[in-house]
Amino acid sequence: MSAEGNIAVVVLAAGGSLRLGRPKQLVEFKGKTLLEQTMDKVDMLGFQTKILVLGANQERIQEKIKFDGFKVAINKDWEQGMASSIKVGLEASLSKENELDHVLFLVSDQPFLEQTNLIKLVHTQLTKNPKATYSKYGDNIGVPAIFGKTTFPLLLSLKGDEGAKKLIHMDNFDFCTETFQKGGFDVDTEEDVQQLKKMQA
Question: Where's the MobA-like NTP transferase domain (predicted)?
């Protein structure tokens, strides 16, 4: 998958799941945790550099899940927000592969992520060569998203709860999107978990 460009993949799973009250990374869906489901999709594509960013509840998560093939990077400042995890993940990727051309960011609470969603993102990024390619669901754009190396300084400069979506508002920031039909469904509350259980059939 990454033979056409040097691509790292970063799974952002450091959040505290405060609204849910328990680690959303460990919520089960179709016999596996949400985090395992996400890692499985990544494994199928043969990326060489795979980073998993943990923070809150890291010990509980590491006791439950095997991370074969993934380098675990701990975000001690996870409470500061998404920007800190993006920075930890990107820095870990660059330390493992300093000739990086692109980095693909995912989160661990999109249960309907498919392998094809990732393939489309990577293909668009490599063929059209924008600064970034985001997923689009409804009126929103977001993760998974892949970024070219010219954006790395911008990603490292994000602060607080700023996600990489902020970059689209910058001047001359050209980007593409790929539709992710059920990307808008994520797991934040107990109601989401109950709804997810009903959708497993």
Answer: 9-169
Q: Is the backbone of residue 60 left (phi > 0), alpha (psi -120 to 50) or beta?
A: alpha
Domain spans of the chain?
2-198
Tell me how far CA of residue 123 lies from CA of 4, 43, 145, 176, in angstroms.
9, 17, 12, 11
Alpha helices in 97-151 (DSSP H): 115-128
Architecture in CATH of 2-198: Alpha-Beta Complex (3.90)
Q: pLDDT tens-digit profile of 75-121? A: 999 999 899 999 999 999 999 887 899 999 999 989 889 999 999 99
Q: Measured between alpha carbons, how far is 194 from 197 in angstroms, rounded to an integer?
A: 5
Residues 6 or more apart whose CB falls under 8 angstroms from that of 55 comprise 14, 15, 16, 74, 75, 76, 77, 78, 79, 85
pTM above 0.90, yes or no: yes
Say if strands 49-54 and 32-33 run parallel, antiparallel, or are unpaired: unpaired
Burial of 64 (0-12, 13-18, 19+ CB in 10 A): middle
pLDDT, tens digit, 9 for 90 and up, residues 36-71? 999 999 988 889 899 999 999 899 999 999 888 999
Angle at 27 (CA atoms; ends 26, 33), nearest 5 degrees: 65
Per the document, the length of the chain is 201
Q: What sign for the dihedral angle of Cα 158, 159, 164, 168?
A: negative
